[in-house]
Write a structure and sequence with these properties.
The chain is mostly helical. The chain has 7 helices and no strands. One of its GO terms (cellular component) is membrane.
């Protein structure tokens, strides 16, 4: 059986693959790296060699203006950042390849990824709304983070409903 061409899988082409690319290019290996290389974020402290200075400045601006959790960086937050860097990051590279080529072996890793990311984001959003470091504007911060809650749920659904071979031509897929 051949995989359904990517051109016939708009959900994969226009939602999931761009989500993986965004996470590699911006979130995991820029913003998350900023979170662990500028700990604690002190004004006047030298900038790290990576990420670019503009990214550090934007993250700090956003954190001070909207999201105190991003500045406080309590232990659970840092743990979630390391998890993203060392586990989700490599997954994103493989997922881009697998979703592009229609490789069915991504099914179980994608389900695991989706459930893990949903769990992590739920914990973070609870802190953003009710915690010690609650966001100044929780509706805005939750809105900004909503794609990281909706997308993994959609991926789990896509992989679960696709059966053992979610990309094969004998099935209707997204």
């Amino acid at each position: 059986m051949a995989p359904i061409p990517l051109s016939e899988r708009p959900l994969d082409k226009y939602w999931f693959i761009p989500f993986f690319v965004l996470n590699i290019a911006v979130i995991t290996y820029m913003i998350d790296i900023e979170q662990v290389t500028t700990m604690p974020p002190i004004a006047g402290k030298p900038y790290p060699w990576w990420p670019p200075r503009a990214v550090v400045d934007i993250v700090r601006w956003y954190g001070y203006k909207y999201d105190p959790l991003l500045i406080a960086r309590p232990p659970f937050w840092r743990a979630s950042i390391y998890y993203d860097i060392f586990f989700f990051g490599p997954f994103y590279f493989y997922a881009i390849h697998a979703f592009t080529k229609g490789i069915n072996a991504i099914r179980i890793p994608a389900i695991i990824f989706g459930t893990c990311l949903t769990t992590v984001v739920t914990l973070i959003l609870m802190e953003e709304i009710y915690g010690e470091y609650a966001a100044h504007d929780p509706f805005f911060v939750v809105g900004v983070n909503l794609p990281w809650l909706i997308t993994p749920i959609a991926i789990v659904y896509r992989m679960w409903m696709g059966g053992e071979r979610p990309f094969d031509t004998d099935k209707k897929t997204c």
